[in-house]
Amino acid sequence: MEMVKRQRTDVLFPAPPKVVAFDCDGVLFDSREANIHFYSHILEQVGRPPVRPDQVEFIHMHPVRESLRYLLEDGPLFDEAYRYFKKIDFTPFDTYLRMEPGIENALRFAKSHFLTALATNRTVSTLELLARYGLRKYFDLVVSASDVEHPKPHPGEMDRIRAFFRVGAEEIVYVGDSTVDEEFAANTGVFFVAYKNRRLKAHYYIDHLKDLTVLLESCRSESANGT
Which residue in 55, 134, 139, 157 is deepest, having the highest Cβ count within 10 Å? Predict the structure, then answer.
């Protein structure tokens, strides 16, 4: 499926979408501040300085193991940091999370009219986080980096989604915000909606989650009209 760099109002989907899948960090939540505090805390425990501004983008997009390896490289410090991570209570860092404006309305609409999934490079904290913010009920399936051998952009998480719902890639709309999501969508052949990031190569761009509801409504209209 060819991706485009221009916005369209007359979106034509390759097939009537059946599944809407979401990334977590950057789509459900603005989590940059939480990630900075989380990783800076771990770095402090192993005697290293806090996260630098130039490191924020990477840790925002990648799972913990890859992020710690990026920050510390392989060796004793990485091993110590990863052991410490496994004992951490995530709750204090979640206070820095902010739900993205309009996310509950978008999820409620998606859940009412489509099958829904979450595909995230978060690990063990995912279900607890969704429950704490009352969002778990909006997802028919949650797939995290803990559930697959390789995290995004490897297609494993989308493979799980396709198998669970028994749908083709052309029947899935995926909403993400990062270059990892862009590559993930390209690797899996799904319809990619880029959220608040027009630098990405995507099929459609939205700057607010209310725009996602408009897009999904157009999906339903196309299906109803047989187009």
Answer: 157
pLDDT tens digits for range 6-24: 444 456 788 899 999 999 9
Measured between alpha carbons, how far is residue 75 from residues 82, 87, 171, 174 in Å?
11, 19, 43, 36
Tens-digit pLDDT profile for residues 37-91: 999 999 999 999 999 999 999 998 888 899 999 999 999 999 999 999 989 888 8
Architecture field, domain 19-30+99-225: 3-Layer(aba) Sandwich (3.40)
Prediction pTM value: 0.86
Handedness of CA 155, 156, 158, 159 (dihedral sign): positive
Whether the ω angle into residue 153 lies within 30 degrees of 0, i.e. cis, is yes
